[in-house]
Design goal:
By secondary structure, this protein is an all-beta fold. The chain has a single domain, classed as Rieske [2Fe-2S] iron-sulphur domain (Rieske Iron-sulfur Protein, 3-layer Sandwich), CATH 2.102.10. The chain is 0% helix and 39% strand. It contains no helices and ten strands. It has a four-stranded antiparallel beta sheet, with no helix packed on it. Strands 1-10-9 form a three-stranded antiparallel beta sheet, with no helix packed on it. A hairpin with a 2-residue loop joins strand 2 and strand 3. The radius of gyration is 13 Å and the shape is globular.
Length: 107
């Protein structure tokens, strides 16, 4: 199955270090512009069923507002407890002013 990218927003809609929640095929995704790059990470914390897009972004990390676990926007790996499992990250493409994300997995 080929990777399918879907437009999620315009680049101009993203504010630096302010996550934007979108849904792609029923998958909640937090899209984040930080340090000049755009990242897409699953919006649900692996520790508790909480939206990561409501948390703070700093140093390419997104923090879960409920218990304080931080996740690397590049890898999805948690850097602090209580979360121990990574959350999925998704490939991003920028085409003009369009931000495209893929939640499909290549097989």
């Amino acid at each position: 199955m080929p990777t399918t990218f879907v437009r999620v927003c315009g680049l101009g809609e993203l504010e630096e270090d302010t996550p934007k929640r979108v849904e792609l095929d029923g998958t909640p995704v937090a899209v984040v512009l930080t340090e000049g790059e755009v990242f897409a990470i699953n919006d649900i914390c692996s520790h508790a069923n909480v939206s990561l897009s409501e948390g703070e972004v700093e140093d390419c990390m997104i923090e879960c507002w409920l218990h304080g676990s931080s996740f690397d926007l590049r890898t999805g790996k948690p850097s602090s407890l209580p979360a121990t499992r990574p959350v999925p990250v998704y490939p991003v493409q920028i085409q003009g002013d369009d931000v495209l994300v893929s939640v499909t997995q290549e097989s």
